[in-house]
Amino acid sequence: MPSRPRSPRWLLHGVAWVVGIGAFVVVLTPPEECPEVDVAAVDGAIEGAARWAATNQDATGRFTYGYDRDRDQVSQAYNLVRHAGMVNSLFQVAAAGDDRFADAAERGLDFMLDRLVTTTDGASAFAEQGDSAKIGATGLLVASLHHRRLVTGGDAHDDLMRAAGRFLRGQIEEGGSILAFWDPRTGLPVPDLYSAFGTGEAFWALALLDESFPGEGWGADARRIGRYVAVDRRQHEDLWLRIPDHWAAYGFSALGTGLAEPEITYLRRLAGDFGLMTRFESSRQADTPGGWLRGPDALGAGVGALGEGLGSLWRLAQVEPRLADLADDLQERSDCVAGLLTARQVSADAAATMPSPDLAAGAWFHGGYTQVDDQQHAISALLVAREVLAP
Amino acid sequence: MSGWVTALLVVATVSPAIVVLRLPGIGWAKLVAGMAAAGVVGTLLVAVADPLAELAEVEPESVRIAAGLVLGVTGLARLAIPVGRREEVFSGAAAWLVPVAYPVVVGPELVLALLAAGVGGQAWAGLIGLAVGLGLAAIATLAGDTAVPAPIWRATARLTAAVQVLVAIALTVDAIRAV
After folding, report:
1. Domains of chain A
2. Distance from C-alpha of A84 to C-alpha of A143, rounded to nearest angstrom
3. Which of A224, A227, A329, A352 has the fewest Cβ atoms within 10 angstroms?
4. Residue B161: its H or E element
5. What is the pTM of this model?
6. ipTM of the complex
7. Closest approach of chain B CAs to the CA of A227, in angstroms?
């Protein structure tokens, strides 16, 4: 007589397999959807976002900061770093050949020119009188002027660019770290305070100054910060995780070749961070298990910043042989970000059904709220994604 | 991650020592047939890993992260309890299939390791690991079941589980760092 198992263990195993596979697919590997995208769609999305900024800008050059569509309410808050970021993005649009929003960029620049503070030794920072000056705001002022310079070819603001560069240089510490604030009461940088993204913004600004004014030593300052970001930052600033710093990616991309091996290692890790975050983001789809378990779509600013980082590293991979093997993957992720952004942007048709169409059209909402930096980062990301799509 | 490390992971997930402990007294014919079946299934898994990931709309790196996480956890479980109760063996014609090929040899760990190898561009490593793992398991089961005391097999199984945990961590970290 053949022996038979007392209980159908194979059946229990089978049930466990089905449950296990289901849990594996639903929890760990939900579908990652990257909507199809082409240059026309990217151009349309850039235009929509830039139009949002231009339409919702007052006569002083100040942008609408935030808008809650559920309450049909505009935020009264403001942030100079984000203002400078949007001005920079609009000048980037102009530098890419679309001058329809150059006037909005100029108005935004005027707003900044009205808020310049003289710091140490005739250096200039972008800040409200009496407030601490943030390096990020001044860094993005420099970036704005750099891109404006590419558009106009003029030297009208070259002295200001250098003065702002001297402000940033004055904030750099011996090891390449850069203090986030300058205190008008003491006339000195505020000690021991660093900024998550201000460091990268200042780094990028100094690298752009080197592009605008080669041979004036700005590149050496940028490289000091770059080395610090790549090697010493986490320990010095007591950071448990690496910051997914798209501004640093811009900075290294602007520096181009001549990077040391630890910087290459850092950039490979940074590319991995952006890749992982993009894959995760693409698995967040409303009304699917991925969406339920992984939460709603990220902020437009967050997805945009991913695209900026990916695109900047893709640019660098075109000229740096030690990163060349990442180019195809960076391109794939950049395309994915562009697809996500174009798919999630509020179209003019959809906005027409909302209480304030001008405040909704071309924007990215998160929980019913949009903020100027959602559009800012998305514009800049889409500009570089366009380059990746059609090199 | 090196292909050879991936191959090591596959060997660890076959876990020859666990096969010995779960299939005491199994005859050579059933064992060899079961191993051959497992080899065929394993080879198919490596071959279909990429199309399967594409069908499921999942990037290879995400599959490797997920596989690494699960293999890390199951490796820890194996480290604590290398083997539960022994499998009851059919004496009928299908015993090579149940329980030899399934569920003892082709378990979730082996499936995940082979999928990770297949989507990671390391199909060759998956196949080498599979061949080595099955070969070792067959030899150990036929030769070692009576010659080596069970505590030694349990210790070996724990060692293999520790290897699985370490390589699973490496797999996860490697996939997290991938673009």
Report:
1. 47-75+257-391 (no CATH), 115-243 (1.50.10.20)
2. 9
3. A352
4. helix B150-177
5. 0.89
6. 0.82
7. 20
